[in-house]
Model the fold of this input.
Amino acid sequence: MTTVQAILSETTAVLNAAGIDESRLQAEWLVSHGLSCRRLELYARFGETVAVDEADRIRAGAERLRKGEPLQYVLGEADFMGFIFKVDRRCLIPRPETEGLVQTVLDIGALWRKGPPVLLDVGTGSGCIVISLARLRLAGRYRAVDISPEALALAKTNAELHGVRDRIGWTTGDIFLPPFLPGLDAVVSNPPYVRTGDWAHLPSHVRDHEPRLALDGGPDGLAVIRRLVGGAALALRPGGWLAMEIGDTQGRAVTEQLQEAGFRNIRISRDLAGKDRYATARREKGRG
Ligand SMILES: C[S@@+](CC[C@H](N)C(=O)[O-])C[C@H]1O[C@@H](n2cnc3c(N)ncnc32)[C@H](O)[C@@H]1O
Done:
């Protein structure tokens, strides 16, 4: 028999000994998840007894954290835009920066003013971008694609849980292969943009656990972005929008690519840490 206080102390000690950052906080998340209560409720429940199966699950989770697995994979869920998404090794863990990308798309007034816009999320992963948009903007018509069938299966599960699965068209594959979807109003994407050479320097909880396909953007980090820009220039209707997350040193190169592909209204904007993080651009109105 163990109490809430005891299992929290035990878990904190295990994580601490393994050198895990913010071990107390991570222990609180793990224990509260294991007890199906809110994190701060733990303190009101210190004296309560923890059932054996609950304690076993918490200890198993602590063991996974101790071995370096990210907290969100261990909990099996992540918060994004105030929504809960299932996550596991099939997908990238949604990042707070990407919430800024969703907000950027929500803020494109011209996109939402006329009829229901058709939006494509390229590299949907957990589905966090397209599902959040579908939840927040009922008017949109949505498509999502991912080259990873495993990620796409998880995205569909998430869409089901959020009640929007039937409002999104799902495609497995490389979006840049035909048949291409023409006439889109917006392409939104958080593509892989880490330089291959930087892979070895990523924190081990990322490098050893998250899918490389989701992160590795080739030798200069721009391999997928380059194709995304070229593909979007063909797939967007004249006046349609491209919104992408980019690496913090990629603003200039991405601007040049967008200019070469004939985009206008090119804007590089920053994330909450003040780093260049988003590229938005509009396909020239007069073309096509
Ligand atoms: C950085 S993750 C983004 C996942 C999710 N959209 C998010 O923001 O958390 C990039 C995603 O793109 C997918 N991907 C990589 N190359 C692709 C390609 N050529 N075509 C389609 N999807 C691709 C990966 O499988 C991965 O799910």
In short: The chain has two domains: 2-67, 77-283. The longest strand covers residues 236-245. The pocket of S-adenosylmethionine is lined by residues 91-92, 94, 98, 122-126, 128-129, 145-148, 151, 174-175, 190-192, 213-214, 224 (CB under 6 Å).
